Fold:
Amino acid sequence: MKKVLSLILLSSSFAWAQVKDSNNSVRPDIRYNLNESGSHYVKATFTNQVWVRLNENNPGTTVLGDPKTNTFDIGLRRTRMQLFGQITDRIFFYTQFGMNNFNKVSAFPAYNTAGTPSNRKVAAFFHDALGEYEVQRKGANFIRFGGGLTIMNGLSRFSQPGIGSIMTMDVPVFAQATVDQTDQFSRKLAVYSRGQVGKFNYRVVVADPFPLETNGAVPPAISQNAGFSQRKNHKQFDALLVYNIFDTEDNTTPGYMTGTYLGKRRVFNIEAGIISQKNATWRREMTDTLYSNMNLWSLAAYLDMPLNAQTGSAVSAYLGYFGTDYGKGYLRYNGSMNPATGTTLPIAGVGGTHGNTYPMFGTGSVVYSQAGYKFKDGLLGNQGTLMPYASLQYANYERLRDGMSVYNVGINWLIKGHTGKMSLNYENRPVYRNSSNANELEANGRRGSWTLQYQISI
Structure:
């Protein structure tokens, strides 16, 4: 009987807790306090993003061998559970478990040439698992050291996005520069330091990238264009420095940076970041194997401000410039939760050109911007409010004849902030074909996709 009563008391202590943040606004938490003040705690969260999408496919697209001009699919863009907590004044832990890009064809790449079936039930994995130790704390200022499996890196805020709070329906994935190549969905084994010193927020990281051969796909053969190398691997060095002109940002979880505070903070930041790795890529020139260093950097400004404190209207915006040097001729196609499996019209020198993909990553430069406006609270009565937005990615990559633009326009229905929201998004992207100039791609029209997302984030 005592055991039963203890179990009931423990379960009830994990009930919804009304917690006030630094802006004195109330948020619901699933947490268990380890001391009376609540400064030591363990917290659990859950986020689920369901996509319903109609996509105009790239030329030649097939789905499980059938030609498809358009596809309609339903999938889970992200399903995540977090467990983290402040165990003592100095010790913090963080874990995240979940899966990404789960639709009816998500397991298809695991099929081999003999047609052996893959397994759709192996998609979930640990995204993060780390521990931190705080060496100094004075008011809002702190210095921490940590290590483990983490998304912490140096390129930009959108290289480590808090996905439950993003303004646009999806993040600019190009900013997650090595995603699923030498990392585990943008995470690497790393040691780091992060902190807030006055108006400056910093993070410094030394990461140990995964071998390309362990990413679940057959490594491409070495060619005249740079690709991630399978020899002479080196550690990766990252640094990000953010200057907070007004309020400081939420620094609870390591790495993850908020998409929009929906006007709850006055944030205006200037940031600069870098990722550098020696001999990260290789290529073949005549009979010689040449190695190249990967040097990626960015300069950006981020604004997230209330316009009217009484009504709750707010604005959010971002503008960033990215220098992306992966090595000569690097170009990689990618598409979020690709609804297709193959193509009858391959493009020489690149792979994965089917479905909704486009040249997302490349050696060159990228300008990325987004802006949104949150209407007053209660615009729809007790059904929340609206936040329209737009984004543009403009890239100049070495192997593209002309500059590439990908734009998104959409609207969020904030039923209960980020906790419950629906987003309708239209994306327009270019498609390409081989040019008359060797090793160059030229534009061959454009395609679009409509996506409806329903997010629950607790």
